[in-house]
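# nightly structure sweep
# worker-07 picked up a monomer target from the shared queue
# config: single-sequence mode, recycle default, output format = structure tokens
# input follows
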Amino acid sequence: MSLSFWKPGTVGPGSTLDRVTENDSAVISAPPQDNRERLPIFKHRQKLLYCVENHGVTIVVGQTGCGKTTQLPQFLYQAGWADNGHVIACTQPRRVAATSVAARVAAEVGTTLGEEVGYTIRFEDVSSKDATRILYLTDGMLFRELLVDPLLTRYSVIMLDEVHERSVHTDLLLGILKKIRRKRPELRLIVSSATMDANYFLDYFSSGNGPNEAVIVSLEGRMYPVQIAYSDEPVPNFVEKAAQVAWNTHLQGGTGDILIFLPGRDDIEMCLEELSERIPSLPASAPRMELVPLYAGLSTDEQLRAFSAPEKGKRKVVVSTNIAEASVTIEGIRYVIDCGLVKIRVYNPSTMISSLVVVPASKASVAQRAGRAGRTSNGVCYRLFTKDTFDSLPASTPPEISRTDLTSIILQLKALGIDDLMKFEWISSPPAETIVKAYDTLRTSGLITDHNTLTPIGSKIAECPLEYNIAKMLFASKDFSCGEEILTIAAMVSIQDVFIIPGGAPGALAELERRKFTAEEGDHLTLLNAYNAFIRYGQSLSWCKAHALSFRAMSRAVSIRSQLKKYMHRFELPIKSCEGDAKRLRQCLVSGYWRHSAKWQPDGTYLSVHGNKIMHVHPTSVLFTRKPKSGWILFHDVEETKQLQIRILTEIEPEW
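# output follows
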């Protein structure tokens, strides 16, 4: 059924958005939050507690916003599941969800965040070993905890939230927790999702554990309708179009905030810039616009900005990656603008290269996005793609385990004593070629023996909260006497976008500022120079602004470095300086990045040593306009747009 509801002179006829199509899959919502007892989950409180008491696994299906993530742990807490020093855990695929939900639940419980309610994410622990009873944490952090306590004995209930996202750690936890349940039958599992095949998970947990092992609870709730507007023709520039639709929506008046979904940080910043340039032309009668970015690279405080109410007389416009798609609820959103794309990491086992690729989102994902508009009232979702495009989308995103490098994962599984991957109860088996390549890499790196058992250094590296190659550099720094510098580089490559380089004239000035830190050897040493200067000049916000550096990113690097330093001490790795010897430092980099090496080609591109792929230097690299003297480089990672672009490069000698 098609409805025409655009006001003349706004998006109306003649534009690429002039039609609204009702779509049942996207009519998603929940009641307002001012009275929590109106949430759908409250109707099912007794049923849920009964199921948790009488079944090992409770599979909860309910739309985002029904209250399952915030309220269910509180029900369990009130029912005594956290007595006698036990903890109720709730895992999230993303750190923004773990932090924002923990803050909200702490407020509802009436406690200080970090006391009865806390969170743990990589490089950040806001919880108390003695006081915390409800703990929100990323699935990766719970997986790492298995290395210390294989039976997770401090937990009475573990809730795996948003399992439909099928992150690699969620898949691994499902298999390991199924095994733990056989040894700890008193442990209760809750598997929850907004959209998932509940019967698939029911069969998985029942297999080998008995027919009464698992039960399904469905949380239905009152729905607010979300009208869907499709584009009549393909949109050539989705960033520009998203900004235009947001602007037109804002000028139409009405109440409610706007949420824009874009694939990555670059797209988000371009969209924010486009909207910022329009703001001076806002009519005096129109409300002001409050522009808020939301993506994984932001600090916790900056991410939480997206969840706070806008100032009086302002409309909030949140421009986000898919992290706002599920797990988290941004109150007040009434309009969603969806470009229909997502950036995911894809691993190619033949080239042994992982790259970030922009691909069409799945039907499940775009339905989730549309649902953001129907949380508190009727909403509208503008899809910047055609109905035919929607019909051709895959039903769901492939599980991360089917498209990721398993080298670090297999190392950690071995540290847990899981040696026979064929006997592991996978919810979805990873590709055989990916497993073979991972074993080859671990053997070549000296982390496992020819008999596939862990070496002493492999056991230690499995405990580090870093990718195996970065951790290997920390251990190699002992041989090259450059622990001080490698520690800094490891912290700096763990964050995103240290340098702020906007477009236009300010961009030229920012580029001049960056050159003050530039090392001719490449980006790793340039990042080292920037960090050392930041410390030397007192970790100052004003100094960062003057030198086009992100104070937020630099401060996070300081925090990460201090935590990695504890691992250096624990493993008795000397923190010595190479005293400016760039050769030793770059040789140490090769110990971790040996798979990521490439040779310069006469046309200015690079040919990867592993896989013979043609690659281009990312424009943000200091080697973007330079040819390395040796003709050889190593790189940190790859991003795939219209071409493969390598980021964070350093010149090396081929014999290394």
